[in-house]
Amino acid sequence: MENRLISVVITTYGRTFTFIRKAVESVAKQTYPQIEILVVDDNGIDSPLGIELEEGLSSLGDPRITLIHHQTNQGACAARNTGIAQAKGEYIAFLDDDDEWLPEKIALQEAVLTNDPTIGLVYCNYFLQVGDQPMRPKRKNSFNGYVFDKLLYRNFIGSTSFVMIRRTVVEQCGPFNINMKSSQDYEYWLRISKRFKIFGLQQNLVIYHAHAGQRITTSVQNRIDGIEMLNSIYHDDMVKSKRILSRRKLVLAPYYVARDGYVKGMAYAFKTYFLYPFSLVSLAMVILSGLGKKPSW
């Protein structure tokens, strides 16, 4: 059977080619042969990084690579949407410019989608790389099928670098929501899971580079705005379950602590906790909020 074309969208902003090269080469070395690599430069036409990127990609001499320039910086999800619009493949995968794929990633995910046409999105496990520390395998609970409620409770899919999506699913669900300031990928997974089956591979197929710990960063308000918008979009689904409602609201607690101070933030955390006070997970989230951390699960 003829191999299906896979479109790989790599978005980049603010990084030198030396950094990006690892990501691009990890795609070029995939065992699956029929791919196109769409690199979307979101630096803007006046950035010297764009010139460096163009020269660097040209030096690789790989005809499968296409470089697309944004006139101005528009954000990662707008860049992904640009890549989607240019993609010719039957399946579409995304890779952040600081992550890498293991050689079998595309082949294994393509096989899942090809063998079961009812599956709309496939994701995988990953290796976590924090600075110069040794890589650690990270395994998530794998949920398969129609998993919207489970996914609304917790984002077990994770980064855009982990997924492959059927083109017809993208066409039916639309693009990433560029009006959100954060959580755009999570919202997209929820949108897809409402209509299509999801499948999780147990293999660790991505090297995910983390450049900071789990402490709350300076982008507090953007995180709050994104989470609040996601909760608003799926409010009618959240209120059907106190367990889900409590969890989705508690996700905001550490950010409220960072923005509004310890007393106000923890008052919100404890008030939200008592929506569903029978969960050790919820209690742990309250404690982490007080420590200025967000959960990694």
Task: Characterise the protein shown here.
With 297 residues, the protein is of the alpha/beta class. It folds into 2 domains: 6-210, Spore Coat Polysaccharide Biosynthesis Protein SpsA, Chain A, CATH 3.90.550.10; 220-290, no CATH class. It has 13 helices and 9 strands. It has helices at residues 17-28, 48-60, 76-86, 105-115, 148-153, 167-173, 184-193, 220-233, 235-238, 242-250, 253-260, 262-273, 280-290; strands spanning 6-12, 35-41, 65-69, 91-96, 100-101, 119-130, 136-138, 164-166, 197-210. The longest helix is centred in the C-terminal third of the chain and has 14 residues, at 220-233. The chain is globular and about 60 Å long. Mean pLDDT is 90; it is low at 213-217.
The portion of residues forming beta strands comes to: 15-25%
CATH level-four homologous superfamily name of the largest domain = Spore Coat Polysaccharide Biosynthesis Protein SpsA, Chain A
Number of discrete helical segments? 13
CATH top level of the largest domain?
Answer: Alpha Beta
**What is the count of β-strands?**
9
Give me the Rg, rounded. Answer: 20 Å
CATH fold descriptor of the largest domain: Spore Coat Polysaccharide Biosynthesis Protein SpsA, Chain A
State the helicity in percent bands. 40-55%
Mean pLDDT, nearest integer?
90
Sum up the overall morphology in one term: globular
User: Span between N and C termini?
Assistant: 40 Å
Question: What is the N-to-C succession of helices and strands?
Answer: EHEHEHEEHEEHEHHEHHHHHH
At CATH level 2, the architecture of the largest domain is Alpha-Beta Complex
Coarse structural class:
alpha/beta
Count of domain modules: 2
Low-confidence stretches: 213-217
